[in-house]
Amino acid sequence: MNEDSPHVLIVRLGAIGDGVFASPLIGAVKRTWPDAKVSWLAEPALASMLSVNPDIEEVVVWPRQRWQSLLRSFRLLALFREVLDFRRELKRRRFDQVFDVQGLLKSAILARLTGAPQRTGLDSGEPTGWLMTRVLPKSRNVARIGSEYLGFAEAVGLDVGDFEMQVATRPGDRAQADRERLRGRYAVLCPFTTRPQKHWFVEQWRDVAIGLADRGLRVLLLGGPGDVEMVDAYIEGTAVESRAGLTTLTETSALIERAEILIGVDTGLTHMGIANATPTVALFGSTCPYTDTTRENAVVLYRKLECSPCRRNPTCEGRFDCMREITPAAVLAQVDRLLAP
């Protein structure tokens, strides 16, 4: 291993939000070893965002869906061959260190396939120790955004510096956002997420959209292709303009960067708002929130109940009381505070 210029592979496979949370590791590696090469192993969706980052040498794409398709169709020999080919490609890159910050069995297996002499992972409770050279406990400072990644960086001796999240965009992405801005100042709403208990209620989004319009802001609704079929419910009776499914992830990030304010639930696009230093109001309920956003212009609204956070096991029979208690008036009050001259 070249101690002055190691080739480091970061493993964080999916989940846009966790990719944003883990992004400060890139800068931490480069501050520690200015001549280091940083690569990242990710699934295609996250890879599309990481691939434009100038500090990343290469994004290695893990074809998870392809492998799952082969497994479901019992094409086991073809799957075995593809795994061997993938291992060969990983070993060819001669990584010196692997930082598996996902900490799951699947990510640890991929880390082991690299053949890197040093493989450090996070402890998630899954049996990964036999695949790693070192397993680290997760940070207990859950109040800070991205705390587990900061704790990991400190534990492996990286120069954490300001440890700020980063989302790179292309010049064309920013130009498109600038054209949007020329049409008038705008706010962005990010209501879509993966679990119903993390959602806010449609009628409350409409009330906030109307309130933002009353404050002289255009309102853009952001989301991915899978969210398009739900758009009509959110924009009915409002002047909201949907961009869901119409922009790439990096184009979406540029729109967020140019926005006056972002309002969103616990989803990757909301975390992008904080990464881009856009004034952000984040709405949390079933998930344990980061109350320390590290930015004065980002706030988390969270109503902690006896059952909070329920994570994936809500006990409220679909009422989602923790989210119901966050009112449009409370959200708009934060908007006024963050946008005050």
From TrEMBL:
* Cellular component terms (Gene Ontology): cytosol
Keyword terms: Glycosyltransferase, Transferase
KW Ion transport (keyword) present: no
Recorded coiled-coil stretches? none
An individual GO BP term:
lipopolysaccharide core region biosynthetic process
In Gene Ontology terms, what is one molecular function of this protein? Answer: ADP-heptose-lipopolysaccharide heptosyltransferase activity
One Pfam family, please name it: Glyco_transf_9
Q: Which InterPro entries match?
A: Glyco_trans_9 (IPR002201), LPS_LOS_Heptosyltrfase (IPR051199)
Any idea what this protein is called?
A: Glycosyl transferase, family 9
Q: Which organism is it from?
A: Luminiphilus syltensis NOR5-1B
